[in-house]
Amino acid sequence: MKCPGFLQLIDYLENRLEKKSADVVAAHLTAGCERCLSSREWYERVRTVADSDLRNDPPTWVVKRAIRTFEGRPVQPRTSPFGRIVASLLFDSFARPLIAGVRSTETANRQLLYEAGDYNIDLQINCPDQNRGTVWGQVLRKDEIGFQSVSGVTLKLTRKGRSSHTSSANDFGEFALNAVPVGEYDLEISTGEGKIIVSPLSIKSH
Ligand SMILES: [Zn+2]
Predict the structure, then answer these.
(1) Co-location of 101 and 36 in the same domain
(2) Does residue 59 contact residue 90 with C-beta atoms inside 8 Å?
(3) 56 and 93, same domain (yes or no)
(4) What does the DSSP 8-state code read for residue 106?
(5) Beta partners for 173?
(6) Distance in angstroms (rounded) separating the CA atoms of residues 41 and 24
(7) By CB atoms within 10 Å of each CB, which of 79, 162, 197, 204 scores lowest?
(8) How far is CA 77 from CA 1, 116, 120, 135, 137, in A?
């Protein structure tokens, strides 16, 4: 199978997935996917160290249920055009203060979580070598059950004002930008409500 999304992996680790989905994720981990094992290790460490932070004030992305399996009627949120907003960083697995005691170099992937209005953007950056990296992630709208607002959103990576890579999200708001040369970028996410800017986005090995 392809890798589960980061949120799905967290739901699995928190025992929030229904059995069928949990079995699939468990099999994927048992198969030894390096990327997902690394994410699991990262999350378990962060959860241990940052226990109070996450439990007392759980961010949306942590508590969000395995909505892929949600069978109720989708709720269409009110749209509120916002033009252009710059996302703020909520969480960075490489930031020392939040995960003091965890050596960031022990995890291969950098995990970043941003907030922009009603949206959350979860990013993972992996640079297997000195030259190129991969950015993958998921866009979610907070008060939405389902993925209407994030399905198919387009992504544009620019470097010094020049378009570098483009992509679009799948039905679940998940996306990947592959073989990106290391460097400083801006990521622009175009939703039906407006543009979200993640800047700067630094893609580099560590
Ligand atoms: Zn995987």
Answers:
(1) no
(2) yes
(3) no
(4) G
(5) none
(6) 18
(7) 162
(8) 32, 16, 15, 28, 22
How remote is the CA of residue 25 from the centroid of ligand 1, in Å?
Answer: 9
Domain that holds residue 175: 72-203
User: Ligand 1 centre and the CA of 100: distance in Å?
Assistant: 26
Residue 3 CA to ligand 1 center (angstroms) comes to: 4
* Position 49 in a domain: yes
Is residue 166 in some structural domain? yes
**Residue type (1 letter), 31:** A
Q: Does the residue 76 lie in any domain?
A: yes
Q: pTM of the full predicted structure?
A: 0.63
DSSP code for 79: P
Query: Considering its fold, how many domains does the chain have in total?
Result: 2
Tokens 């560590």, residue? 206
Q: How far is the CA of 28 from the centre of ligand 1 (A)?
A: 6
Q: Is the peptide bond before 200 cis (omega within 30 degrees of 0)?
A: yes
CA of 71 to the centre of ligand 1 (A): 25
Are 50 and 136 members of one domain? Answer: no
Residues 88 and 59 in one domain: no
